[in-house]
Amino acid sequence: MKKKILASALCLAMMASLASCGGDKDADTSNKSGDASTGDVTIRWSWWGDTTRHEKYNQIADKFEEKNPGIKVEREPNSWADYWDKLSVQVAGGNAPDMMGQHLQFAADYSTRGALQDLQPFVDDGTIDVSKVEQSVLDTGKMNDVFCMVPMAVTTQSLIANKTLLDQYGVDYPAYNEDWTWDEFAAEGEKFVKATNGEIWFTGDWSTASMNIVRYWSRMNGQEAYTEDGKRGFEEETLAEWLTMWKDLRDKGVIPDAATTTEDKSNALEQNLFSTHKSAIASVPANQLYLYAEQAPDEEVILLRQPISNDKKQGVFVEGAHWAVSSKSAHQKEAAMLINFWTNDADAVNIYQMDQGVPINNELASQISENLSESDKKCIEFVQAYMEVASGYTTPPAGATELDTELQNYGSAVGFGEKTPEEAAKEFVAKVDEVLNK
Question: Which of 32, 155, 271, 375 is surrounded by the most beta carbons within 10 Å?
Answer without folding.
Answer: 155
